[in-house]
Amino acid sequence: MSKLGQVVESIEKYNKFVLDQVKRARTDEEFGRGLLGRWNDIKAKIPATRTPTGLPLPRLALPEIDEAGEIARYLFGEGLPGEFPFLNGAYREMYLEPIREIQSFEKDGEPPQRPARPPLPQAEEPTRLFSGLMLAEDTNERFHYLTQHQRTHRLSTAFDGPTLYGIDSDADGVFGKIGEGGVAIDTVEDMVRLYDGFDLGSPNFSASMTISGPAPIIMAMYIAAAKRRFGPKVVPKLRGTIQADIFKEVQAQNETIFPIEASLRFLTDMVEFTTQEMPRWYPISISGYHIGEAGSTPVQQAAYTLSNGFAYAEMFAARGIPVDQFGPRLSFFLDCGLDVEYIALARVSRRIWAIGMRDVFGAGPRAQLFKLHTQTSGRSLIAAEFKNNLTRTAAELILAYMNATNSCHSNSADEPFTTPSEEWIRLAAHGQAILLEESGIFKHTMNMLSGSPGMKAVERSVETAILDEFREIERLGGVLAAVEDRYQRSQIQNAAHRYEQQIYDGIRPIIGLNRYRNGAEDVPEVKLVRTPRKKQQLQVDRLAKFKKKNAEKAKLALDKLADVVERGENCFPILLEAVEVCSLGQITGRLQEVVGRFRPMV
Amino acid sequence: MASPIRILTAVPICDGHDSAINTINLEFIRHGIEVVYLGYHRSVGDIVRAAIQEDVRAIGISSYNGGHIEFFAEVIALLRKRGANDIKVFGGGGGTITHEDAAAMERKGVDNIFFAGTSLTEMTDYVRKHYGKPRGKRSRPKSPDQELAHKLTAIEDAYTAGRKRSTRNAQSKIRNPQGVHPPRRAIRNTKVIGFTGPGGAGKTTLIDELVLRFLNRSPKGRIAILSHDPSVIGEGALLGDRATMINSQNDRVFMRSMATRGQAGGLSPATHDCLTLLARSGFDYVIIETVGTGQEAMPFQKNGIVDQTVLVMNPDYGSRLQLQKIVMLDLADIVVVNKSDLQRARTAHTEIEQRLEQNRRNQRLIDTVAKRHRDPGADELFELISRGSK
Questions:
Q1: Could you say which of B71, B208, B240 has the minimum Cβ distance to residue A602?
Q2: Which of B13, B69, B116 sits opposite A174 (nearest CB)?
Q3: Complex ipTM, two decimals?
Q4: Is the model's pTM score more than 0.80?
Q5: Could you tell me the CA-to-CA distances from B147 to B85, B139, B173 in Å, in that order?
Q6: A181 touches chain B (CB under 8 A)
Q7: CA–CA separation, B15 vs A246, rounded Å?
């Protein structure tokens, strides 16, 4: 049985354990009394808060139960926010604002007293906006624009097509793609420009990089760029995330450049390095987003993401990295659309991950956490009457925060057309601020919307469906075997086809498309962000200069790299040297000579 | 009867959005169109080379990652440079291609851009209406490959139109196809190798690995591939081998994908004549790949133009008794057990070995894992093929 099969057993066993505890609480008087005592204790310790209108509320809402069996079911089955099995949240207080001074509203006519100082923003804003356009300096400018009002600088970087496929800007036929849909990065010098002006070693800075196929090379460039600017001592201080999720590329997104096994090896090389040298870095973001965007059902998305995660854990453990070292450095990324499953998809995922990691991999508390970044669904946004996309995104944001996501990206309404423009990005960012800061839904009380009978029904149903998917993958020989068999790929494509058919048949209503069409011209006036030819040429010229300058050193570095890869050693330290003098495309090309190219699954 | 429309579809370089094109391909083939699918992340050079070799009527490009104005323009410019003005270009990209972009692209020679919301029926109708008319007089080919491609089309069209009828056994005897004259250049020592085997055994991947070895070994050599896929009901066909054959998208490889057009047995009625032509066209090797075949199939024999036959097997052929029924096991010169990393492969090797010994024909049995880079089994097969004299 693979680890995934063991995970299924561990969940079943845990669910049975919960039922046993419920039964025991009802039959074993002493145990029951103990639970009641603990419950009353928890309730007594919940701090109180007041809303701006003066309404008192607890900072944590709990179900109104006073019977030992139900208390057992809640505490063991769901857990308080921040407690195993983490159904209600990975952390205790998440988005709650700091406790307000209790203000007097009692005297008639008198305005409420202003607090001595405005409440501090929470420790770290959960907003993380994805951006990348044109050349490094243009994206850099956008980063500064986005973070101008933020105390913490959490940058999320999108790369252009050539970078995502590990090829250089001077490659045949890619000219028009330079800087389109993301930033063009060819060399360490571009990487230096990209984050110019940000303090990469600061605890208030973190960089997220959405790239998988060539992730180890880009990671090496980031480290090299940081060292150029801040010296070698900055390395252990670097904070951020790199996507590096090969499984989902093969399953859904098609940005794979080496054969699967070689890709997984390079990934593990990088993870081995970062877990040792960069304790604050997340070297992989296990991503369901692209699986969802490629058309999977929500259950498929969660099931494939989790099973991919367990497969990575198995791989890293096999390399000899201790689970409590790599476990806390894994992060997850899910899509949030409008289907009802999204009410609880991430909640259920968090619970399955925690139980599997604890009971199958022997992970300690920090390595059990399913740390989640969510993005609202790009696929749910459409071109027709595109301003409706604001409402779609708003609804998705509510769902995402109901799932207690750790961070979130809200899509811009103009996404169906182009790289988002500043106006719509601003609206998207403000959407989150309105929800979290202006509205009272999430800032006063944890569990504000948890535990409704409907939500619980969805949780049960989704969990069962995810475990069924696990069993199927296990039957196929585990995640890698299923991937090579194209299992997940076919399932996703099938679901995508069904989705389109449902839209076509009108079973799936899309407002403005198959319902309530106004018949007006479908493509609105949206100012497109396109990379000017002059900039594209500049990128090509810069690269030529870099290659010329380093020609001799590059040859030596590439030979050394190829040699280490042939010998089967960890190649990441050599990559760190190579990126100083080689471009992305030079490195990819040489590695492909040694390990081969990825053969598309069609 | 007129030949089915042949078109090529692809997704541009640095773009992995293949979900739309997959759906569209299926719709096209359901409506009688033969689609040569090149896959995603494909360069301008790959697309134009394939379009010329396959001699398609049009190229459909599905682009979702930006840079479409330049990309489409480069495809058209290269087609013109190569003298393939008769190959038209159309495409789409959901909401990413605006009306303004489309106008600019059409000025540069793109026939049509489909916008978000276009129904599959509209697309199919468009292709049938614009690319379904019989070809006029063809202009002079600008390259030997283009000339060869035109001649292959003429052979296929002649068969489909009923001007020529298929002989029952494609390999019965060599005939000089009417109206098709082999190029006058010196006939080189071309070796013709036939690959057959059940669907999913890995023939295509294995051939592509052999091509890679050939290109590395022989810096100036050229190779031709004649690949087959079945026509479906409705007479269309998805000719998808190029999408898998990443190493074969090379100027030194001439590849032609053929649909079986109603003939059973893994080949097309026009195969024999096309193969004859290719065998006389100065390639070092010509590889012919059948569609996935069953037990009774006997697509080629050695007394024809095929010099060497390779049967590629999957370890999962079923019981030992099933093995006795596979006719090709008696005829193939080389039998390959691909996917030999599967658990069942050792048993398969033993059983097939026994079966071959009964034949007393000195047939070779090789285990490969074609999907693995630098697979020693694929090396062995390559050596065997390149060593064996014609």
A1: B240
A2: B13
A3: 0.86
A4: yes
A5: 14, 10, 25
A6: yes
A7: 16
